[in-house]
What we know:
Blueprint: H1 2-25, H2 30-35, E1 39-42, H3 46-51, E2 58-59, H4 65-68, E3 78-82, H5 86-97, E4 103-108, H6 109-118
Parallel strand pairs: 1-2, 1-3, 3-4
Amino acid sequence: MKNLLIFCGIILMIYIVYRVYKYQTLDDGLDKMIKNGAVILDVRTEKEFEMGHISGSQNISLGTIRERYHELDPNKTYITVCSHGLRSVKVESILKEKGFKKVYNGGAWSDLQKSLEQN
């Protein structure tokens, strides 16, 4: 019984950490940024992008961003998206290392698309 309680406690902790991480890494006001001209940068693979994406988004995968970041305008605002939000955090970090100032994590592309449709 004690082991079961410990196991349940660990699972609960992991879930709480995940939810906190998800809310802390997503930026607020993304819909306003998009209305003001922010570019949605989809960092999934080309095949994933072809299966579905936000209309008007640009596709540069995480695997190619270090070679292709120069295709982006450092003066523009970018919102990175992927399938779950992990790759988009990584690309946000890479672009900021390369001197981009206005890069924000949009998380999962499907969640952002739903959010944009509601507004």
